[in-house]
Structure to design on (176 residues):
């Protein structure tokens, strides 16, 4: 991250539109465009999640479709999804039967706990894999090592997206 910050600042000074205020219109436009691209790239690379997503796209290992992505979710996570969906159905039934809001909220909060724990574990895994990728990419690792790290990053990233969707479903129920 320190290297990213340093390179961003150097390129920002090189392309910043303030340095082109007396330049011809074409150069000012080019400066604005380069500065915009630079800012977009910096935001994408600074955020760990968007950085991984970009890396997977760059390396050509993103899923081709939603069905392909669904195949990547491990069975243990699918079991939790099944259990969560059953819990959400029961909460909806309780809501329809007139159960008190605090009782529904408490049940949803309990249902969220294991999903939150999974998310935290995945965030740690993604951070560790990102660090391994940086070392492999900068240290001349073999293609096989790089592919293995990319595959692990891809799997964890897909699982993370799935978990995020599960948590969003819980939040929707909490907001009703």
């Amino acid at each position: 991250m320190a290297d990213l910050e340093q390179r961003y600042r150097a390129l920002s000074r090189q392309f910043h539109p303030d340095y082109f205020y007396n330049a011809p219109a074409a150069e000012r436009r080019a400066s604005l465009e380069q500065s915009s691209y630079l800012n977009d790239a910096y935001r994408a690379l600074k955020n760990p999640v968007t950085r991984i997503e970009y890396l997977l796209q760059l390396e050509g290992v993103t899923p081709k479709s939603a069905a392909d992505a669904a195949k990547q979710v491990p069975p243990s996570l699918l079991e939790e999804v099944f259990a969560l969906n059953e819990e959400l159905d029961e909460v909806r039934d309780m809501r329809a039967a007139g159960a008190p809001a605090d009782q529904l909220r408490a049940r949803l909060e309990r249902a969220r706990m294991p999903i939150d724990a999974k998310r935290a574990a995945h965030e740690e895994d993604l951070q560790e894999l990102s660090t391994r990728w940086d070392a492999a990419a900068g240290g001349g690792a073999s293609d096989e090592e790089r592919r293995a790290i990319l595959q692990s990053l891809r799997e964890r990233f897909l699982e993370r997206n799935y978990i995020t969707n599960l948590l969003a479903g819980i939040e929707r129920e909490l907001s009703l």
Observations:
- The radius of gyration is 22 Å.
